[in-house]
Amino acid sequence: MVRVQNLTRADALSAVRSPLAFIAEHWTPTSRTVRRAALAALVMSVVIVVTGGAVRLTSSGLGCPTWPKCTDDSLTATSEMGFHGAIEFGNRMLTYVLCAAVGWAIIAARSRKPWRRGLTRLGWAQFWIVMSNAILGGIVVLVGLNPYTVAAHFLLSTALITVAALMWQRTREGDAAPRPLVGKSVQQLVWFLVAASVLLIAAGTVVTGAGPHAGDSSQVERIPVSWENVAKLHAVLAWIVVTLTFALWFVLKAVDAPQGPLRRTRDLFLILLSQGVLGYVQYFTDLPEALVALHMLGSCLVWIGVLRVLLSLRERPEAVTDLPGPATTSALTRA
Fold first, then answer.
1. Which parts of the chain fold into alpha helices (H)?
2. Which of 155, 147, 122 is closest to 34 using CA atoms?
3. Would you call 314 helix, strand, or coil by DSSP?
4. Distance (Å, rounded) from C-alpha 46 to C-alpha 49?
5. Which of 108, 158, 229, 266 shows the smallest number of beta carbons within 10 Å?
C-alpha cells in the first residue's frame, strides 16, 4: 500500500498560491506520460476542427442562436431546439474536453524533472489560443455565421494545431541548440513548401466561405466570389504543394539525407495524394457533406505532415552540462 503524504497548512497555502508548482513537487511524470499528454492535446485540436465542420455541414451553426448561453433563457440546448441545437451545444461542450487535454499537457510539462520551461510555454500558448478561439466562435454566432469570421475561426484552429504539433515534437527532443541535418538549399525548399501550404489552406477557407454549405438553413452571407473558380485555384495550389513535396523527396534522396526527413516527406506525399483524390471526388459530386468532412480532416493531416517535415530537418539532443573530469578534479585538488 502506498503511504499518502500528510499535508500541512503550509502545503495547502502553497497549493492555493501556485497549484502547478505544488503538483510538480508531489508528482513526476515519465517522459512517455508527457509525450502522451502532448499527443492528446494535438488529437483534440484536430477533433474540434472536424466536429466544428460537422456543425456547419449539418446546418447547425445557429442551433444555439446566441452566446455564451445557448438561448437567451437557457445555458444548455433544450428539447424544443431539436437536432441542430444538440449538435451545436455538443460542439461547445467539446471545447471543455479540449481544455482538459491542454491542461493535462501543461501540468505534465510543468511536473517533468528537470522542468523544461519551453514545453510549459507551448502548453500555455495552446490554452490562450483555445480561449481566443472560443470567444471568436461566440462572435461567429452573434454575427450570424459571417463567412470571414468563420474563416478566421478555422485559421486560428490551424494555429492551435501548429503549436500542439510543435509541443509534441519537442517532447521527443532535448533542449540543446538545434543542429541542421540538411543543407541551406534543402531548408529553403521546405520553407517554400510551408508557404505554399499556408496559401492552400487559406484558399480552402475562401472555398468554404463562398460554397454552398453556409452552416445554417437560413439565408447566410457568403463571400461574393465564384466558389468554383476559387476551388480551381485551390486545386492549382494543391498541385504546387504536391510538386514541391515530390521535388523535396527527390532532392533528399540525391543528397543522401537521413531517414527521418525522407520518411516524413514520404508520409506527406501519401497524405497529399489521398487528399487530392478526395478533393476531386467531392468537387465532381457537388460537395456531399460526408466527403467535405473528410476533406477537412485531411486538411489538418496535411498541415501536420508539413510541420513534421519542417521539424525533421534538425535534431535537438539533450543538453549536457559539463562536469569536472578526472584531470580537472586533480588540478582543483592540487590547487
1. 9-17, 19-26, 31-57, 82-111, 117-142, 147-170, 184-210, 227-254, 259-284, 289-311, 326-334
2. 122
3. strand
4. 5
5. 229
| Cell of residue 90, nine digits | 455538443
d(CA 281, CA 301): 18
What are the cell numbers at 233?
A: 485555384
- φ, ψ of residue 180 to 5 degrees: the values are -65, 145
pLDDT in tens, the chain (335 residues): 445 456 565 555 555 567 888 888 888 999 999 999 999 999 999 999 999 988 988 989 889 989 989 988 888 888 878 888 999 999 999 999 999 999 999 999 999 999 889 999 999 999 999 999 999 999 999 999 999 999 999 999 999 999 999 999 999 998 888 999 999 999 999 999 999 999 999 999 999 899 888 888 778 899 999 988 999 999 999 999 999 999 999 999 999 999 999 999 999 999 999 999 998 898 888 888 888 899 999 999 999 999 999 999 999 887 654 444 444 444 444 43
